[in-house]
From TrEMBL:
InterPro entries: 5peptide_repeat (IPR001646), PA_immunity-related (IPR052949). This is Pentapeptide repeat-containing protein. SUPFAM superfamilies: Pentapeptide repeat-like (SSF141571). It comes from the Bacteria. Pfam families: Pentapeptide_4 (PF13599). It comes from Aureibaculum flavum.
Length: 186
């Protein structure tokens, strides 16, 4: 187990991060793009200004992990360990990521780009999407009960194919809920 260490400006594309348990570690300005992080355990860790785009995260444990200003393009979070997945995302690029059938109750996405993210079948009740771009994000059979979309934008959510009871939306976003009906809202 590796505990309470800080890793700065490391390029793990040339020298892979050893498979181990990382607890209370900080990763700053590190490059993990296209690397294999499978079966690694991250507990109480933080990633700041890191690039994890297209990394392999099969059965990777993310337990109480904070991502801040990170590139997480195309990450298949649906392949990460599902029993211990607790993460927060602030000012991150998560375009093309997948949270398919992921349990994300009370999840917070703050100032994130979530373009074309797959949220189908996910449990997102009480989730918050603060100032997030959800352009072409896929919500199908998704539980969005009591989720907060009041400052989110560019989303399209079909109320007939998703659970949205108690969800919070602003008046300006009605188009995102009624898009399939091709209505003109003025």
């Amino acid at each position: 187990m590796i505990e309470s260490q800080t890793f700065k400006k490391k390029n793990y594309t040339t020298s892979p991060l050893p498979v181990d348990e990382y607890e209370d570690c900080t990763f700053i300005d590190c490059i993990f793009s296209n690397t294999d992080l499978s079966s690694i355990s991250f507990v109480d860790c933080s990633f700041a200004d890191c690039d994890l785009s297209s990394a392999k995260i099969y059965e990777t444990i993310f337990n109480e992990v904070e991502f801040t200003n990170c590139k997480l393009l195309g990450l298949p979070f649906d392949s990460a360990n599902q029993f211990t997945f607790i993460a927060s995302f602030t000012d991150c690029q998560l375009d093309f990521a997948s949270f398919y059938q992921r349990k994300l109750k009370n999840q917070h996405f703050i100032d994130c780009s979530l373009k074309e993210v797959d949220f189908s079948g996910a449990e997102l009740s009480n989730a918050q999407f603060k100032n997030c771009n959800l352009e072409n994000a896929n919500f199908e059979n998704t539980n969005l009960e009591k989720a907060d979309f009041t400052t989110a934008y560019n989303f399209s959510i079909d109320p007939e194919n998703n659970k949205i009871k108690g969800g919070q939306f602003s008046v300006n976003q009605l188009e995102g809920l009624l898009k399939k009906y091709h209505l003109k809202i003025n």
